[in-house]
Amino acid sequence: MAEFKYEGNRRTLTGVVISDKADKTIVVRVETLVKHPLLKKYIRRRKKFMAHDPANDCHTGDKVQIVESKPLSRRKRWHLVQILEKAV
């Protein structure tokens, strides 16, 4: 896997790859827990991010870490940092 160098404070997110069909691109679903202001109950929020995977290492189901980067295309603004867990 090619090492991605970045400097400064950039957001990093951890999520699961839900699609790897595009060339050098993965779609990562990130889940966060948010407390409802009135009900005081935790709600699971999901959001999809497109990330750059230059070596096509990731596959569906892998747990990955992504980091903010400069815009690479219209929707792709994240870069793969590392694969935390491979899918079984």
Automatic annotation (TrEMBL):
Query: Quick check: keyword Ribonucleoprotein in the entry?
Result: yes
| Swiss-Prot/TrEMBL keywords | Ribonucleoprotein, Ribosomal protein, RNA-binding, rRNA-binding
What InterPro entries has UniProt attached to this entry? NA-bd_OB-fold (IPR012340), Ribosomal_uS17 (IPR000266), Ribosomal_uS17_bact/chlr (IPR019984), Ribosomal_uS17_CS (IPR019979)
The name of this protein is: Small ribosomal subunit protein uS17
Q: In its keyword annotation, does this UniProt entry include Ribonucleoprotein?
A: yes
- Gene encoding the protein: rpsQ
Entry GO CC: cytosolic small ribosomal subunit
Q: What family does this chain come from, according to its entry?
A: Belongs to the universal ribosomal protein uS17 family.
Q: Which CDD domains match?
A: Ribosomal_uS17
GO molecular function terms noted in the UniProt entry: rRNA binding; structural constituent of ribosome
Q: Spell out the Gene3D superfamilies in the cross-references.
A: Nucleic acid-binding proteins
Summarizing the function annotation, the protein's role is: One of the primary rRNA binding proteins, it binds specifically to the 5'-end of 16S ribosomal RNA.
Q: Which GO terms describe its biological process?
A: translation
What Pfam families has UniProt attached to this entry? Ribosomal_S17
Q: Kindly state the subunit structure of this protein.
A: Part of the 30S ribosomal subunit.
Query: PROSITE patterns, alphabetically?
Result: RIBOSOMAL_S17
Identify the PANTHER family for this entry. Answer: 40S RIBOSOMAL PROTEIN S11 FAMILY MEMBER (PTHR10744), SMALL RIBOSOMAL SUBUNIT PROTEIN US17M (PTHR10744:SF1)
